[in-house]
Amino acid sequence: MAWYWTSKAAIESAVKSSGFQHWTILRPAFLMYNYLSPRADHMFPELPQSHVFLTAYKEDTAMTLLDPDDVGKFATAAILDPDTYHQSEIDLGVQALTPEEIARSLSRASGKQIKAKFYTTEEVMSLSKTNPRLTAQLWANDVGYQVDLEALKRYPITLTSFDEYLQSKKEDVQKTCS
Known about the structure:
Blueprint: H1 2-16, E1 24-28, E2 30-31, H2 39-43, H3 46-50, E3 52-55, E4 63-66, H4 68-80, H5 82-85, E5 88-92, E6 95-97, H6 99-110, E7 115-118, H7 121-127, H8 132-142, H9 162-168, H10 170-176
Parallel strand pairs: 1-5, 2-4, 3-7
Antiparallel strand pairs: 4-6
């Protein structure tokens, strides 16, 4: 995953040194739509197939989540009020949930029993050699998204909780977990 982080850092560096009159860098955490098809079909294939949230996250790893529309809210605010957001680097997220909490939210929204299940250490070590999504999950265990949720409160933008997002996408949740 080094190429991923290196390219992101290079892009941010290019933006900062570009000479733009105004710039803002938004760094969204894990987007909530990753738990819905078609993304879930790749990211968490057991979720739509078996109603199992199978993950390499540790039981106590809390994933910081964000509604993709909330990225748009921040981008719009930065465009409409460039002086306020100028030279801001904003890590975006609304809440950090463990796999069990994610599974419970998906269960409530879908009406199906979604179970959190965890790869064994041996399975992760073997599978992560060829599966970048597991490598990313291992990264989340060790590093994770570093979002200061309190600092985001200084912005006049209401963020969407995971449960609110799932309720607004209820039909998609039900299709994913049918």
